[in-house]
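Please decode residue identities from the backbone states below.
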């Protein structure tokens, strides 16, 4: 890698409803303390989203920017792969279209790569609530439902199993050696694991590590619809299903000797030994909040289990998927 590596930031989106989110994300990229940045936005499905973003990037002078339209296979992985092919950076980063970067996000990201043993970097995603009242009752243990990370309780730089798709990066050599994201694991297939699968593949083939750095911070918008029972059911089910698929394909994968799903096991233990007792304690002193937490807990755990064990009863689950 050069002394001043180029960081290519790839953003993908397909909904015109996300236009304002995308434009604010571009604004947060423009004010990064690291100036050696290339910005690549990939739109699909909506030509208006593509056109309006392209105009905005030009008018606002977003430095070294490219705005592309995906005419090929649809899906998050396919759109990101198009961005990878166009990227000129030594490091290629990916952020969700509804995130906002801290001003030093890129600078802190690049710093981690001074260690040659690092192949990928990820960091915390802090919730930016559309409904601010949710911050007082939504359990941190289930922040993963809206792609936020307080559940991890990690305050130090550490090696991790996988990078998180809402804010992650890899050296360009990772894609040269290991290929691109698999669209079979992207959102359009139901599976929510393209970041996990690629991380496992990269660690196995390069022998290098993926690092979580608490200084690589971003905000992740939590739109109101993400608090709905329908969203929680669907998200939990597909994450459970995805973890089962990853366990099937990468059963021998470990980080520091830990089992593939040790992260999930630790979180489940925390839910059972800390969250649930806390809910019970507040059932009569803060009833509304306690019942909300309990409903989310029961719903999320139930649908994770249904997704994980769906292979045991595929016919029944096909009806269930139509219901939610």
């Amino acid at each position: 890698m050069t002394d001043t590596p180029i960081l290519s930031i790839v953003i993908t989106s397909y909904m015109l409803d996300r236009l304002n989110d995308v434009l604010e994300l571009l604004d947060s990229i423009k004010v990064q303390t690291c100036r050696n940045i290339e910005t690549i936005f990939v739109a699909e499905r909506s030509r208006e989203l593509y056109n309006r973003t392209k105009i905005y990037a030009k008018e606002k002078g977003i430095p070294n920017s490219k705005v592309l339209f995906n005419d090929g296979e649809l899906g998050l992985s396919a759109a990101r792969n198009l961005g990878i092919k166009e990227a000129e950076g030594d490091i290629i980063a990916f952020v969700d279209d509804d995130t906002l970067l801290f001003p030093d996000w890129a600078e802190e990201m690049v710093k981690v790569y001074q260690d040659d043993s690092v192949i990928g970097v990820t960091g915390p995603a802090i919730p930016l609530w559309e409904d601010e009242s949710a911050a007082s009752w939504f359990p941190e243990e289930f922040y993963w439902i809206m792609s936020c990370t307080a559940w991890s309780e990690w305050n130090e730089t550490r090696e991790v199993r996988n990078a998180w798709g809402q804010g992650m990066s890899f050296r360009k050599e990772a894609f040269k050696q290991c290929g691109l994201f698999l669209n079979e694991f992207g959102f359009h297939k139901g599976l929510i694991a393209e970041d996990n699968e690629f991380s496992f593949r990269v660690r196995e083939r390069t022998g290098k590590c993926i690092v979580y750095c608490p200084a690589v911070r971003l905000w992740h918008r939590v739109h109101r619809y993400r608090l709905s029972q329908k969203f929680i059911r669907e998200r939990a089910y597909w994450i459970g299903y995805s973890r089962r698929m990853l366990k099937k394909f990468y059963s021998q994968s470990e980080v520091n000797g830990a089992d593939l799903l040790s992260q999930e096991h630790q979180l489940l233990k925390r839910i059972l030994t800390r969250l649930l007792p806390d809910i019970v304690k507040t059932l009569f002193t803060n009833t509304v909040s306690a019942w909300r937490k309990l409903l989310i807990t029961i719903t999320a755990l139930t649908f994770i289990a249904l997704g994980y064990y769906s292979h045991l009863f595929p016919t029944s689950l096909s009806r269930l998927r139509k219901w939610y």
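Observation: The two ends are 48 Å apart (CA to CA).
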